[in-house]
Amino acid sequence: MKVELHLHTSRYSACSQNTPAAMMERLIQTGYDAVFITEHNAVWSDEEIAQLQSGFPEIRIFPGVELSTGVDGSQHILVLGTTDSEYLKLRSAEQILQKSRQDGCLSVLAHPFRWAGGAEILKSKILPDAIEYYSGNHKHPDAEMALEVSKRLNLPIVNTGDVHSLADINQFWIETHYPIESPGDIRKVILERAYDNCVFG
Ligand SMILES: [Zn+2]
Ligand SMILES: [Zn+2]
């Protein structure tokens, strides 16, 4: 399955340029099978996900969130597979990572080397389940630094679009070795490393 793990829409992310519908259309055109919607500090409800899903049966649409935490909000953590607004009340990275694990969600440290302090959580006892590799906002040399850290800490590393506009789609993604049927499956696939990181071209 061709999967987008990190996507913002103009519905809840002010920095995103395109509507959910426009994003879904482009994902389908470029062959994606599944997408996780990860707005900045906002969750979609189950009803909203179901409504968008009913308009785009060609792609599986799953919920998630991108939470800003740490000093100056420089640490961004994706929690994949949740519509739980309780995450928005959590202040520390440790609390977020713990809840994500309890809930059976997948936590991913987004663009760890985009900003100073973005990788601080990697020094603490509780680690994210995975870290971001290449994305629209995390390329060479940041991505290579992430690869080194992932090897040192033995963490899976994943390509994402960090999609904010249609042009970010079909640049970086993962291909899973078996289908994602429910939001919880993504945790299993990534922890089993049953996926490949892909790059356009
Ligand atoms: Zn971010
Ligand atoms: Zn993002």
Please give a structural write-up:
By secondary structure, this protein is of the alpha/beta class. The chain has five helices and nine strands. A nine-stranded mixed sheet has the order 7-6-5-4-3-2-1-8-9. Helix 4 links the parallel strand 6 and strand 7. The mean pLDDT is 96. The structure holds zinc ion (2 copies). The site of one zinc ion (ZN) has 4 residues, from loops.
Going across the biggest sheet, name each strand in turn.
7-6-5-4-3-2-1-8-9
Largest sheet composition: 9 strands, mixed
The assigned CATH architecture is Alpha-Beta Barrel
- The Rg value, from CA coordinates, equals 15 Å
Spans of at least 5 consecutive residues whose pLDDT stays below 50 are none
What is the count of β-strands?
9
Structural class: alpha/beta
Bound molecules: zinc ion
> Mean pLDDT across all residues, rounded?
96
Q: Key terms for this structure?
A:
201 residues, alpha/beta, binds zinc ion, TIM Barrel, single chain
Write the layout of secondary structure elements.
Blueprint lengths: L1 E6 L12 H10 L4 E7 L5 H10 L4 E10 L5 E6 L12 H11 L2 E5 L19 E3 L9 H12 L3 E2 L13 E5 L8 H7 L3 E5 L2
Parallel strand pairs: 1-2, 2-3, 5-6, 6-7
Antiparallel strand pairs: 1-8, 3-4, 4-5, 8-9
The structure holds zinc ion (ZN) (2 copies).
In short:
With 201 residues, this protein is α/β, with parallel strands linked by helices.
